[in-house]
C-alpha cells in the first residue's frame, strides 16, 4: 500500500489527499495489519473505495463507510466484516449479523481481527437480538477451533442458558490466568446468584477485593470497581448479612456512579431501609412506581416494600 516503499495505495486516484498521504497510509497500515494475513493482499484489489470506507469508519462516519462498502463485492470477506461493523454502529443489528455470517461463509470460518473476533462478535449480536442459544452455538464452534477465544462472552451465554457449572468452570480458569480482572469475579458472582449460590457469590466478590489492590499510592493499584461494590452490597443488604459492611460498600458504590441505573436506585432504597432512614418507605414506593411489572427487578422491589427495617 506504499508504506513499505512500494507504489502508493492511492497512486493518482486520489490527488486531493496528497498533503495527508503519509499520515493516511500509516493509519491504513495499522488497520490492515489487524486483518488475517491471508486476506491482506486482497485489500489492494478492493481499491480506494475500500480504503476510504475503513477510514470513514475509523473517523466515526459509519453511514459514509457503509455507502462505500455497499458498492464493493458482496463475496469479499473483509467487505462483509467492515459492513457488519458499520451496520452495528448505525444500530442495525440484523444487518451486522448478516455481515458477520457472510464473512464466515466467504472466509471459510470465523477469524480474530485485531482485538476482536468475528465469531465472538456474532455471538454477542445474536444474544442482543434475543437469540442467545444460537449465540452459544456459535461460541461452541469458535472454541472448538480456538479453546481460549471469547471466554467472557462464552460464560455469559452459558449463564443465560442455565449451564451454571460450565460457566463457573470457564470463569475459574480465566481468573487463574487474570487474577486482577474484577469483571471476571463479578460475572462469577452473578453466575452463582443465578444458580442459587448466594453465599458463594459473596465469597467470590470478597475474593476480588483481596486479589485486586485499590489503595492509592500502592504499586498496581486499580480504581474500585463499581459493579463489584454494588453487587456485594446488594447481596449483603438483601440477605440481612454483614449489614455494616454492606452499607460501607453501598456508600463506596454511590461515590463511583456516573450515570445512575435501576440497580443504583434499588441499592439506595435497600441501604435506606437497612440504616433505618425515615425516607426508606418513600424511596421504595417511588422505585416501585418507576419499575414496570415486566422488569426483572419488580419482584425484588415488592419484597423490599413488604420488608420492615
In short:
Helices cover 67% and strands 1% of the residues. A hairpin with a 2-residue loop joins strand 1 and strand 2.
Question: How are the secondary structure elements laid out?
Answer:
Elements: H1 21-33, H2 37-40, H3 42-58, H4 62-69, H5 77-89, H6 93-107, E1 112-113, E2 116-117, H7 118-128, H8 132-145, H9 151-160, H10 164-177, H11 182-194, H12 198-211, H13 226-239, H14 243-256, H15 262-274, H16 280-289, H17 298-306
Antiparallel strand pairs: 1-2
Protein described:
This protein is mainly α and 309 residues long. The protein contains 17 helices and two strands. It has helices spanning 21-33, 37-40, 42-58, 62-69, 77-89, 93-107, 118-128, 132-145, 151-160, 164-177, 182-194, 198-211, 226-239, 243-256, 262-274, 280-289, 298-306, and strands at residues 112-113, 116-117. The protein has a two-stranded antiparallel ribbon with strand order 1-2. A hairpin with a 2-residue loop joins strand 1 and strand 2. The longest helix is centred in the N-terminal third of the chain and has 17 residues, at 42-58. The chain is elongated, with a radius of gyration of 24 Å. The N and C termini lie far apart (69 Å). The model is unreliable at 1-13 and 216-220 (pLDDT under 50).
Sequence of strands across the biggest β-sheet: 1-2
**Number of helical elements:** 17
Uncertain stretches of 5 or more adjacent residues:
1-13, 216-220
C-alpha termini separation: 69 Å
Amino acid at each position: 500500500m506504499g508504506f513499505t516503499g512500494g507504489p502508493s495505495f492511492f497512486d493518482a486516484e486520489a490527488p486531493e489527499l496528497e498533503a495527508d498521504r503519509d499520515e493516511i497510509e500509516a493509519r491504513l497500515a495499522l488497520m490492515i495489519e489487524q486483518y488475517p494475513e491471508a486476506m491482506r493482499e486482497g485489500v489492494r484489489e478492493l481499491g480506494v473505495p475500500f480504503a476510504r470506507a475503513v477510514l470513514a469508519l475509523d473517523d466515526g462516519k459509519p453511514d459514509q463507510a457503509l455507502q462505500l462498502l455497499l458498492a464493493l463485492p458482496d463475496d469479499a470477506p473483509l467487505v462483509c466484516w467492515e459492513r457488519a461493523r458499520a451496520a452495528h454502529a448505525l444500530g442495525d443489528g440484523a444487518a451486522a449479523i448478516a455481515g458477520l455470517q457472510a464473512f464466515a461463509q466467504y472466509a471459510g470460518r470465523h477469524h480474530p481481527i485485531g482485538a476482536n473476533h468475528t465469531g465472538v462478535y456474532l455471538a454477542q449480536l445474536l444474544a442482543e437480538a434475543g437469540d442467545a442459544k444460537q449465540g452459544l452455538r456459535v461460541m461452541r464452534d469458535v472454541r472448538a477451533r480456538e479453546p481460549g477465544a471469547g471466554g467472557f462472552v462464552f460464560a455469559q451465554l452459558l449463564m443465560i442458558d442455565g449451564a451454571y457449572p460450565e460457566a463457573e468452570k470457564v470463569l475459574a480458569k480465566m481468573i487463574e490466568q487474570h487474577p486482577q480482572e474484577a469483571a471476571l469475579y463479578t460475572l462469577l458472582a452473578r453466575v452463582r446468584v443465578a444458580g442459587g449460590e448466594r453465599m458463594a457469590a459473596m465469597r467470590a466478590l470478597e475474593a476480588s477485593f483481596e486479589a485486586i489492590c485499590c489503595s492509592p499510592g500502592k504499586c498496581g493499584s486499580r480504581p474500585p470497581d463499581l459493579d463489584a461494590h454494588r453487587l456485594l452490597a446488594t447481596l449483603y443488604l438483601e440477605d440481612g448479612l454483614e449489614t455494616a459492611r454492606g452499607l460501607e460498600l453501598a456508600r463506596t458504590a454511590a461515590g463511583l456512579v456516573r450515570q445512575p441505573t435501576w440497580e443504583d436506585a434499588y441499592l439506595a432504597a435497600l441501604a435506606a431501609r437497612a440504616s433505618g432512614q425515615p425516607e426508606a418507605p418513600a424511596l421504595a414506593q417511588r422505585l416501585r412506581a418507576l419499575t414496570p411489572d415486566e422488569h426483572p427487578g419488580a419482584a425484588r422491589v415488592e419484597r423490599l416494600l413488604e420488608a420492615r427495617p
